[in-house]
Design brief:
The chain has 481 residues and is α/β, with parallel strands linked by helices. It has two domains: 2-207, Rossmann fold, CATH 3.40.50; 211-477, UDP-N-acetylmuramoyl-L-alanine:D-glutamate ligase (3-Layer(aba) Sandwich), CATH 3.40.1190.20. Helix content is 41%, strand content 15%. It is built from 17 helices and 18 strands. Strand 13, helix 10 (309-319) and strand 14 (325-327) form a beta-alpha-beta unit. It starts with a strand and ends with a helix.
Length: 481
């Protein structure tokens, strides 16, 4: 599990650690980690041209100190400054043979962005923009110090000019703004440098699941199991017009390892599910009668269901039960008009909106995707899986989770139906851990999307077919050796 901390938490931890260390020790650790990362990017330092873009704060000082180390290893290092740099750091670069100021070089092998730090708000100021443009003219790859300048460290928002990096060397702990929104797109490859903050950091604000965390939730059952222990999930989906959503959701629940899938829906959708998935238990039922499908450990309701009174009655009947429910697609629209259906629940509820569905609950997502997911979760007493390239999962309290496996290839019709079915299966299996179920489903869905696209595009059916491959991949990643 990777952890990310908001700026306030990082600042407090840095102050506590610096009080226990010799002066300058923390910055020395950061600069050394940055210098090593630059050497790796360059493939060696000797004879290379490095351009530092330097601001007035600690990130600029980190760049200068790292530049001094590179200069001592034979690199030709030039610093362009936006404002007055930290004096002792600038002196260290000059003493190592580097140059501070003067005309910008026309070419470079690497550009290091140290213009602003994690405390910066808003886009780059005009003087910093001019320095950044000089760096761009070199055509060299860019390494950002802690985060790309102009990106909000807490939200990933960009409200003006900002650096677009090829790689980011992050200090101490990940910053949420590197994981979501525009910040994720501008960070490039993220490399974490350990400064020793771990013992003084509070619990994370944001988490990122790794393969081992997901593998725990989808572990091999062994021999002492049966279909009921693997989870029985009910799917209420499809309509006379939209039968494909039902087929995809049921198929995904099966692919995700549900011990049994019970389907309830319109006769046209039921016929399609029965023909495609003979292992599913199919009931032709609509409205409040959908619960006649039988006992389940979790429900998925909404894909292709419609939003008329009959569909609303089905949603209300499912939510009235005492088991976890995953609310997707049309069921979100129904619930947006009847939020009491969600607030009155005692069992776990997972909502899976994209941005437009989120807005139906009376607010826009905005630039702070983590904050938006948390706000809706707190309002409704649910877990919210806010879909996007960087899907966010948040509950009413505790850390949010950002998915690291998303791909734009998943922006295709039916992909959300696959996610709903797969997440419902995990919700039935992990009924007391909705955060793990939802975030694991997002991880596997993103991985299945990448595997099925193979560098090109994909379809919902191919994502569904690749789900078992995604499970095998996370299990294989945790095997010894």
């Amino acid at each position: 599990m990777l952890a990310a901390h908001a700026v306030a938490s990082v600042r407090a931890a840095e102050r506590e650690l610096m009080a226990a260390l010799p002066p300058g020790a923390l910055m020395a650790r950061a600069a050394t980690g940055l210098a090593h990362a630059c050497v790796d990017e360059l493939g060696g330092a000797y004879g290379r041209d490095v351009l530092l873009l330097v601001g007035t704060g600690d990130n600029g000082a980190d760049a200068l100190w790292a530049g001094a180390q590179l200069a001592r290893r034979g690199a030709r290092v030039t610093a362009l400054c936006s404002g007055t740099p930290v004096a002792d750091a600038a002196a260290a670069l000059r003493a190592a043979g580097g140059r501070v100021g003067g005309p910008p070089p026309r070419t470079a092998d690497l550009v290091v962005d140290g213009l602003t730090g994690i405390g910066g708000r808003g886009g780059l100021r005009p003087e910093a923009v001019a320095v950044w443009q000089a760096g761009l003219l070199t055509g060299a790859p860019v390494v950002a110090v802690d985060l790309p300048s102009g990106v909000d460290a807490d939200t990933g928002a960009v409200t003006g000019s900002a650096v677009h990096a090829d790689a980011t060397v992050c200090f101490g702990t990940l910053k949420p703004g590197l994981l979501v929104g525009e910040g994720r797109r501008r960070a490039g490859r993220v490399r974490l440098v350990d400064l020793g903050l771990g013992p003084v950091l509070p619990p994370p604000d944001v988490e990122v699941l790794e393969a081992g965390d997901v593998a725990t939730g989808v572990a091999d059952d062994g021999q002492d199991t049966d279909k009921y222990r693997r989870g029985v999930v009910g799917v209420v989906a499809g309509s006379e017009r939209y039968t494909g959503a039902a087929v995809l959701a049921v198929g995904a629940a099966l692919a995700a390892g549900a011990g049994m899938v019970r389907f309830a829906g319109h006769p046209h959708a039921a016929a399609q599910v029965r023909a495609r998935w003979p292992e599913a238990v199919v009931t032709e039922a609509t409205g409040a009668d959908v619960t006649a499908a039988g006992r389940v450990q979790a429900w998925v309701v909404g894909p292709g269901l419609g939003t008329d009174d009959v569909a609303a009655a089905a949603v209300e009947a499912v939510l009235a039960g005492g088991v976890p429910v995953l609310v997707d697609a049309d069921a979100l629209t129904v619930c947006a008009a009847r939020p009491h259906l969600l607030r009155d629940r005692a069992a776990a509820t997972v909502l899976t909106p994209h941005d437009r569905e989120y807005a139906r609950f009376g607010r826009e997502v905005g630039d702070d995707r983590v904050g938006a997911a948390r706000a809706l979760a707190g309002d409704l007493g649910a877990h919210v899986l806010l879909k996007g390239v960087a899907t966010v999962v948040a509950g009413p309290d505790g850390p949010a989770r950002v998915n690291a496996t998303g791909t734009p290839a998943l922006a295709t019709a039916g992909s959300g139906d696959v996610l709903a079915g797969g997440a419902g299966a995990l919700l039935a299996l992990l009924d007391d851990e909705p955060l793990l179920a939802a975030s694991s489903a997002a991880h596997l869905h993103g991985l299945a999307g990448s595997l099925s696209a193979a560098g090109a595009s994909t379809t919902a059916e191919r994502v569904l077919a690749a789900w078992p491959d995604a499970v095998r991949a996370v299990r294989a990643a945790t095997l010894p050796g």
